Amino acid sequence: MFKTIPIPILNDNYVWVIIYDNKTVVIDPGSAAEVVDFHQKNNLTISNILITHRHNDHIDGVQELMGKYDPDVFAPYHQSFDFKYTVVKDKDVVSLFNDQLSFEVIHVPGHTLEHVVYHGSKMLFCGDTLFSFGCGRVFEGTLEQMHKSLKKISKIDCLSKVYCTHEYTKNNLRFLSSYFKNDKLYQSNLKKLENIAITVPSLLKDELEFNPFLNSNLDDFKAIRKAKDLF
Fold first, then answer.
1. From 32, 42, 141, 223, which residue has the greatest number of CB atoms within 10 Å?
2. Each residue of 162-171: pLDDT tens digit?
3. How many separate domains does the chain show?
């Protein structure tokens, strides 16, 4: 029923686009030009924009897209947003495509304090909180907050696809191969992905099994996150 497409932007970002008939929902448009080009080529119109957090590489295209398509925008509250939007908070439900699709909002502080993810219909749009074989840097708050946020994510439907917003998979695997020197799993996955440009989405079930950022206790999480920061 729904088709989900990644639009590559900047160095390693993805803008995710959910298509239903000739309408779309756009998630975290850090640039407008590529999104407009995609919509023009495919005769599509943006009905909604979803924002996970305030960093420029997730919002810089919003104003231009609003001017061209007049979509309704949903975002967590932050005083720095200079566009019109509906505030969403933990446990809110966002209805899209005339109620054909709905997402629960989950508040996941850590990368930023206002960060949220959107989950529904076995789709998880997780911004910069969870990555394939990784997680986001902790720029605000604490490592404890990020760990708790990841544990929130670990409780949702494990058959959900994980739509993160950066192509970090290979770099994450290189780090894990170095950190867990005797574990061949990460080296094997890295080799499998060698000639694959777009490595996401992943499956939450696999992340729960193989992603140590998601399945570690707090002390181990702190150690591996700090090591990744230095990698």
1. 32
2. 999 999 999 9
3. 1
